[in-house]
# Entry
Amino acid sequence: MKRLIETLKNIWKIEELKNKILLTLGLLFVYRLGSNVVLPGIDPKSLADLQSQTGTGLLGILNAFTGGAFANASILALGIMPYISASIVIQLLAMAVPSLQKMQKEGESGRRKLNQITRVLTIGITIAQAPGYIANLIQQNVQISMPAAFFWPTAIMVLTTGTVFAMWLGERITDKGIGNGISLLIMVGIIASLPQAFFQELASRFENKGGGLVIFLIEIVALLVVIMLSIALVQATRRIPVQYAKRTAGGVQYGATSRQYIPLKVNAAGVMPIIFAQAIMFIPVTVLTYAGLQGEGASSFITLFSNIQGFWYNLIFSVLIILFTYLYTAIQVNTNQMADDLKRGGGFIPGIKPGKPTAEFLDLVLSRITLPGAIFLALLAVLPAFAMSAGIISQFAYFYGGTSLLIMVGVILDTLQQVESYLLNRHYDGLMKSGRIQGRAAVTTPSV
# Structure
């Protein structure tokens, strides 16, 4: 406890770091306030059906990522998700479109151009998603106090403005604050529901045959174990040794003796495989429900893809996660480019020829370490289902794994790593006595 207090004092002594933290907290507070401002023309008392609809499934994920704004019909109801979608689209297009590939290689100027394209695409995606969200509001019998001809354009404009504002907040946090702004907005939305879920689970344990305080403490210990396993998954890397040919600069000889590594992440895909798999699992139910198909076969199919505690649901879900992990890892990590960059920089992997053999070696290693990472990721994704089967309420069970837990762990590690860097640069002790914190940014595969 004494070390914690001393660390907090050291953080407060660094004026720049203190200002960044206060600015970040202030902008996050503004975002949370906006999440509770209801769209103009909507009666907040009529949102009960919408809130019950967003309890599970893909809509539940969207609601969690927006901190409840989706179910509250807030001006920030679509949140930052259109920006995430636009970023993924640009990332995928950059693999196939030569002009985007060229921008990626132009350094800072290319990055600014890609960011501008992403912002424009975000606005387009939001304008396309807003009518669907409004139509869902009307279908859920949400009361509207203004004519439809005036409500629709107003709501679309407000939702689009809300997403742009959330995007602006995230960028300001990244530029002027501490941590990755977009990730922090998502994490704050997820954490917002944690206190309520915690106390609901605690209250349920003191009800009749709830197990009491002992069972609740066992649940907390299990949650801590899962968090530690998630941290291990986020930080796990396979370090590939790299050597550079001897070169002289300014009379000093470099290379050969220096020991460097290429850190290949065990889970390079992050949480994206879970998000993709959940979306795929949700599509059949949505199509059959809105198509109005009836019959025993359709009902059985809907039940299969709706029962998140069922065996077949979790089996299919796990297989999809493993497949998407390999797919997204192949998109994220370009071994050919890594091999080319190594060759141009005069570097090589001991025992491996430069060029194509290096790319094949990196691809082989990446394929091997991705398998256990994908299986571990699938297990984490289905843990909430096991938690619910054990009697934990659904709101609290979602924190036992899946997207929510991995996002929180990754974002917190990234932010703490930045704080620790400030402390070490000012000659203070770091946050950890045993060693430096390694967040996702610390183990991101470099372009060597």
Notes: Strands lie at 237-244, 247-249, 252-254, 260-265, 347-348.
